[in-house]
Design a protein that fits this description.
heterodimer, A: 381 residues, mainly beta, Porin, 3% helix, 54% strand, disordered C terminus, B: 512 residues, Immunoglobulin-like, 5-stranded mixed β-sheet, 50% strand
């Protein structure tokens, strides 16, 4: 994906525009034993194309602020065994998976959702780039996943999870499919010291609830997601909430999408305008800001058929940022104003198979196929 | 009866050994093999007076028989007291004694009994010189105690304030982070009038850093040292900076020691063995190699103030690393977050350590309380001149905080009477606030703690400390008022308590 993004303001009160190649992704799937044994891999080359992150007002995580961080090169490499017990578990299916990827928690990675802009709540609503071991069971319309993983998140694209910390964190996700197009999920996670790799950081308790629609409405493909997420740190001393609703509607070669988000973000001390201190020195923040953002976008399928696809797009976001809960951080002073715009224009390119919903392994991998309306990014296999 | 004169080294031992009085009257000379304390150790008395009881040693032979008529030498080894006689002879019970008159020094004084070539020699007796009589029972909490604002405040509106140090007629405060676009790279210099009220007299910009995180002035008032951090393009560098105070209103840069890959969070001065050292807490870094990134206790010899010389680097595990160091009597108490407090001998002698080669004595991880981690941040080793005890180490826990608004973290009390086996015995919690730096009025047995949004807290720490110390709160003041108080540090000087507040600057408080 190549895009030009202009944001106003950025830290310091100025505007900033830049062209970047983001989300360069290679995906591969392999299967054996009647596809019960599956290998899923995703390489992400953002460490090469956006080593200093992608300009995204409000985004934060892994030491980046107001820039969405580059992902690790090996984004997913998960081996899973589906229906591990065969007929022994009756109509239920039990599966296991292990490797590097997403913990079974929350909603889909923003990379595989219609808006180009990453939401502020990325680190509230997903747990990624971990060494994971997952057990899942599906019985009828109900799917339950549980996972163990390492709590530490990476601080740079080439960094590996701390294997020694494997098992210090866990999560569970219950998903219900009441109808073909509807998916409801609730998740809970206990994550040990995600923001301090040696393990002395605060523990996070995380909740996620979401409802997702993926189907047709009056013969038009429609996608919708409503989610609520909360992260509580230090036994509730810090609590960050997020509400997000987004949707996309397609007709012919055109796709419209819209997202509303209201998410709270910790304001950490910054060492540079777009970077916070890593590793941490203490468990203090300067305040909390609440980001309320409307994003609307339009995409046109320029090469709608064949294995190569191109989708020029334009996307506009407008939002406000407010200080909540006290502290030294003063958003208006820091940014020069309390509202912001960002505009992105670019093209999505993809070759080969469609992307999969990231973070869906083993029994959940059946639900990982991504409909065209959500297609985002490029891949090959 | 046999008489034997044995000369060993420079000590003449006249032995009248009467041993083995067998039927055949086969007298054998007694050879002293062991000397040990019998009585008199650990006494207290008013300075300049004799201890209530004589110092006594017992001398025995290899078989454990009392050795009579052995000459034991006595001398004073710490303090300027006297001991009489300087030589005494053991009686039939093998005991020799002497009387120790204390010198004028407050605190510990020592005398010894020596018998060259004998196991256990010398036997050292410790005593304590007191201002008044023997230790009283723990006093009731002072009545009518009140912390109140006297002067100052709201005097650094353009920057956030950090640490302070007061010496003589001047005070010095650091600055922190960025406020309204102004960086915390300034040392504020305050003159104190006859009443102790501060007036901003000068400011010094320290190039290359963005926060002055700690300030201290040497005991002779000639040297100011500060720690700096968040410097460089990546905010990853800093160091220690030494200023001369020949004109206390105009600190002049003498030298510095740059610390890349982390910068320095705090620095503490201590004189050991006639040389002046700076104990610097290096932050964890995030560039360079892993060794450079490692947090560490850096010990500089700053005797030559223009050329601080690194004499030792003690790595501290990166579980947030080291935040502060308290040095007293040749012991360095390193406050190392989740690693707890680590006690090093840096010249005390109990482990043979020195500033160039610290030796760990012990360590302790204090409880998490409600803070989610031990978060061991700072401390003060209490030398109680009233009871002569050096029993308690007060530790500040820096829990989660929204800086400028709310904080958490308790005061933990550790019994270090056995330095090799410290144990936590008490705590103090101020709900809704968290503690930061300390100062102690040792004579009055009052601990003053900066308590961030709680302002300044005074605790009665007399007597035995155990369990929840909530009932020992003597006073509290939020000098800037609600919403304008986030107090970093306190210091007692010139009869006033000074408090530096991140939001509202430097305050003079009264402690009536």
């Amino acid at each position: 994906m190549a895009a030009y993004t202009l944001a106003d303001p950025v830290p310091g009160g100025r505007s900033l525009g830049e062209v970047r190649v983001s989300q360069p992704v290679l995906m591969a799937h392999a299967g054996a034993l009647s596809n019960r044994l599956r290998l899923l891999a995703t390489l992400n080359l953002e460490g090469l194309t956006i080593p200093n992150g992608e300009l995204t007002p409000g985004a934060w995580g892994e030491g980046f602020v107001d820039r969405r961080h580059p992902h690790t090169y090996l984004h997913e490499l998960v081996l899973s065994l589906d229906d591990a017990l065969g007929d022994l578990d009756g109509t239920a299916r039990i599966s296991v998976a292990a490797g590097k990827g997403f913990a079974p928690f929350g909603t889909d990675d923003p990379m595989v959702r219609p808006p180009f802009r990453y939401p502020v709540n990325h680190h509230l609503a997903q747990i990624l780039e971990r060494v994971v071991a997952i057990v899942g069971v599906r019985a009828g319309p109900v799917m339950l996943e549980g996972g163990l993983f390492n709590g530490d998140e990476p601080e740079r694209p080439g960094q590996w999870p701390r294997v020694s910390r494997f098992g210090d964190s866990w999560s569970g996700r219950l998903t219900v499919f009441p109808a073909a197009a509807i998916e409801l999920q609730g998740s809970y996670a206990e994550v040990h010291s995600p923001e301090h790799r040696p393990g002395s950081g605060l523990d996070h308790s995380k909740w996620s609830l979401s409802g997702r629609w993926d189907g047709e409405v009056q013969a038009f493909p429609v996608y919708g997601l409503v989610e609520w997420a909360r992260t509580s740190e230090a036994k509730g001393f810090f609590v960050f909430d997020s509400f997000l609703a987004e949707g996309a509607w397609s007709t012919g070669r055109s796709r419209l999408h819209y997202r509303f988000e209201r998410t709270e973000r910790p304001e950490e001390e910054r060492l540079t305008p777009f970077r916070s201190r890593r590793p941490h020195l203490e468990n203090s923040i300067l305040g909390t800001t609440r980001w309320t953002i409307h994003t609307v976008g339009y995409g046109l399928a320029a090469l709608p058929s064949g294995t190569a696809r191109a989708q020029p797009f334009v996307e506009v976001s407008h939002g406000t940022v407010r200080d909540v809960g006290g502290g030294l951080f003063d958003a208006r002073s820091f940014y020069g104003k309390s509202s912001f715009w960002s505009v992105s224009a670019g093209v999505r390119l993809s070759i080969g198979m469609r992307m999969h919903r990231m973070g869906r392994y083993a029994v959940a991998q059946d639900t990982a196929e991504l409909p065209e309306i959500e297609q985002n990014g490029d891949h090959a296999h | 009866m046999a008489t034997m004169l044995i000369r060993r080294g420079s000590t003449a031992l006249l032995l009248f050994g009467v041993a083995g009085c067998s039927e055949g009257n086969d007298l054998q000379p007694l050879i002293p093999a062991l000397i040990e304390a019998f009585d008199g150790d650990g006494q207290s008395s008013v300075v300049g007076t004799s201890l209530p009881h004589s110092l006594r040693v017992r001398v025995t032979d290899a078989a454990g028989n009392e050795a009579p008529n052995v000459a034991v030498g006595w001398s004073v080894v710490q303090g300027s007291g006297t001991i009489t006689p300087t030589s005494s002879t053991t009686g039939q019970d093998g005991i020799a004694s002497a009387d120790f008159t204390l010198g004028p020094e407050l605190g510990e004084q020592r005398a010894q009994a020596a018998l060259d070539g004998v196991s256990g020699s010398p036997v050292v007796f410790a005593a304590t010189g007191l201002v008044t009589g023997p230790p009283p029972p723990p006093p009731p909490p002072p009545s009518g105690f009140q912390l109140a604002v006297e002067s100052g405040g709201n005097n650094v509106p353009e920057r956030f304030s950090s640490d302070l140090w007061v010496h003589g007629t001047h005070a010095y405060t650091g600055t922190w982070g960025t406020r309204t676009g102004n960086q915390g790279n300034v040392l504020m210099v305050w003159s104190l009038d006859a009443s102790g009220a501060p007036t901003l007299a000068n400011s010094v910009i320290i190039a290359g850093i963005r926060t002055v995180s700690d300030v201290e002035v040497s005991g002779d008032g000639q040297l100011l040292v500060l720690s700096g951090e968040r410097g460089g393009q990546l905010g990853n560098s800093g160091g220690i900076y030494l200023y001369g105070l020949s004109d206390p209103a105009r600190p002049s840069l003498l030298g510095s020691a740059s610390v890349q890959s982390g910068g320095v969070h705090t620095v503490t001065l201590s004189s050991i063995g006639g040389r002046l050292y700076a104990f610097a807490a290096k932050n964890p870094g995030f560039s360079g190699d892993e060794t450079e990134n490692e947090p560490a206790l850096l010990i500089y010899d700053v005797t030559d103030r223009a050329m601080p010389t690194l004499v030792h680097r003690e790595p501290i595990p990166p579980r947030y690393g080291i935040h502060d160091t308290f040095v007293r009597d040749g012991l360095a108490f390193v406050f190392a977050w989740d690693e707890g407090v680590i006690i090093y001998d840096v010249g005390n002698g109990i482990r043979g350590g020195s500033p160039a080669a610290p030796v760990e004595v012990s360590r302790l991880v204090t409880s998490e309380g409600n803070a989610g981690s031990p978060a061991v941040h700072n401390g003060w080793w209490f030398h109680n001149p009233v009871t002569s005890e050096r029993r308690y180490l007060f530790i500040g826990q820096e829990g989660p905080a929204v800086i400028g608004s709310r904080a958490s973290g308790d005061i933990h009390v550790v019994d270090v009477s056995d330095l090799a086996n410290p144990r936590e015995v008490a705590f103090f919690r101020l709900n809704g606030a968290g503690t930061h730096n300390f100062w102690m009025d040792e004579a009055r047995q009052i601990l003053y703690a900066a308590y961030y949004n709680g302002g300044v807290v005074a605790l009665d720490v007399s007597g035995t400390l155990s369990g929840d110390l909530g009932g020992r709160l003597l006073g509290q003041v939020r000098p800037g008022g609600a919403g304008n108080t986030f107090t970093w540090g306190v210091q007692l000087a010139n009869g006033s308590l000074y408090a530096v507040d991140m939001l509202s600057g430097l305050w003079q408080l009264t402690t009536e």
